[in-house]
């Protein structure tokens, strides 16, 4: 039961995360055609993001940055989060060179702090960005939501090594293998999760986007249950991305992780 629920959550989350980054990127590029190029290695890698452009300043001066190592947390009996993806319609799946992202047209919501957030996109990182007790995992998906006030909420799911995860297969067969490529998604291609569910067993904290401009004020929800992914399935992500796309762990500073 736990596994099935987790798979459902995965699928749902994926869809959520993608839309926001794409919108921001599109508008920024229109305004600044020479927009700073960033990457995961060398002179344009994570250690230099904050110096690549004035608008990336949070990447080096922020105090609430993501990802983090989740080791200790405060048990405060957080309420369940109502997730409703029952009317989810996906747009496409994109290999943008930084990640594999599924853009969502409409139909996915979560309710956090009595506010309604809409799923914009979901995308993958390999290996995981957040760690648990100092341990890294092979894959992490970020479901990115936004509300009317332009606040962000990310629901994250980490995968552990194991058996084939059947819920991932429809997406895997559609992953564009080259940067810049995209593919339209049909209704059946995102049937990888329960369409509506109350999320329990999670931790939350205040964090940021894990890619430039590293914007803070993001509500992070990390699910504690971890679905499996097989070596063969992971290979597809790795071959499409051609490089690791995880930002290193950031200091927790004054933040608390709440369960
Ligand atoms: Zn992400």
Structural descriptors:
two-stranded parallel ribbon; 6 helices; disordered N terminus; twelve-stranded mixed β-sheet; single chain; 259 residues; 20% helix; alpha+beta; globular; Carbonic Anhydrase II; binds zinc ion; 14 strands
Q: How would you describe this structure to a colleague?
A:
By secondary structure, this protein is an alpha+beta fold. It has a single domain, classed as Carbonic Anhydrase II (Roll), CATH 3.10.200. It is built from six helices and 14 strands. Strands 2, 3, 4, 5, 6, 8, 9, 10, 11, 12, 13 and 14 form a twelve-stranded mixed β-sheet that branches. Strands 1-7 form a two-stranded parallel sheet. The longest helix has 16 residues, at 2-17. The two termini are 21 Å apart. Zinc ion binds next to strand 6.
How is this structure best summarized?
The chain has 259 residues and is an alpha+beta fold. The chain is 20% helix and 31% strand.
Task: Spell out the blueprint of helices and strands.
Blueprint: H1 2-17, H2 19-31, H3 49-52, H4 58-61, E1 69-70, E2 81-84, E3 89-95, E4 100-106, E5 109-112, E6 115-125, E7 131-132, E8 139-146, E9 152-161, H5 169-172, E10 182-184, E11 196-199, E12 202-208, E13 216-223, E14 228-229, H6 231-241
Bound molecules: zinc ion.
Count of DSSP H/I helices = 6
Total domains: 1
Q: Return Rg in Å.
A: 17 Å
Q: How much β-strand is present in the residues?
A: 25-35%
Protein structure class: alpha+beta
Uncertain residue ranges: 1-33
Write down the overall geometry. globular
Helix content: 10-25%
What string, H for helix and E for strand, traces the elements in order?
Answer: HHHHEEEEEEEEEHEEEEEH
Average residue-wise pLDDT? 88
């Amino acid at each position: 039961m736990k596994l099935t629920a987790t798979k459902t959550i995965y699928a749902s989350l994926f869809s959520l995360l993608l839309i926001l980054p794409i919108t921001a990127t599109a508008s920024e590029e229109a305004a600044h055609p020479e927009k700073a190029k960033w990457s995961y290695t060398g002179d344009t890698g994570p250690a230099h993001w904050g110096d690549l452009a004035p608008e990336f300043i949070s990447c080096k001066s922020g105090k609430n940055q993501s990802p983090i190592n989740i080791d200790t947390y405060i048990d405060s009996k957080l309420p369940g989060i109502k997730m409703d993806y029952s009317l989810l319609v996906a747009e496409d799946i994109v290999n943008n060179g930084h990640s594999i992202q599924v853009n969502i047209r409409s139909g996915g919501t979560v309710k956090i702090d009595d506010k309604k957030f809409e799923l914009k996109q979901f995308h993958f990182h390999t290996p995981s960005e957040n760690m648990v007790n100092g341990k890294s995992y092979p894959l992490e998906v970020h479901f990115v939501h936004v509300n009317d006030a332009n606040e962000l909420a990310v629901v994250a799911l980490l995968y552990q090594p194991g058996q084939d995860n059947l819920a991932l297969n429809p997406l895997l067969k559609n992953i564009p293998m080259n940067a810049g490529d995209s593919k339209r998604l049909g209704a059946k291609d995102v049937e990888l999760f329960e369409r509506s569910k109350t999320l329990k067993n999670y931790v939350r904290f205040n964090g940021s986007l894990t890619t430039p401009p590293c914007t803070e004020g993001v509500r992070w929800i990390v699910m504690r249950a971890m679905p499996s992914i097989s070596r063969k399935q992971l290979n597809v992500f790795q071959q499409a991305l051609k490089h690791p796309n995880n930002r290193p762990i950031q200091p927790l500073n004054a933040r608390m992780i709440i369960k």
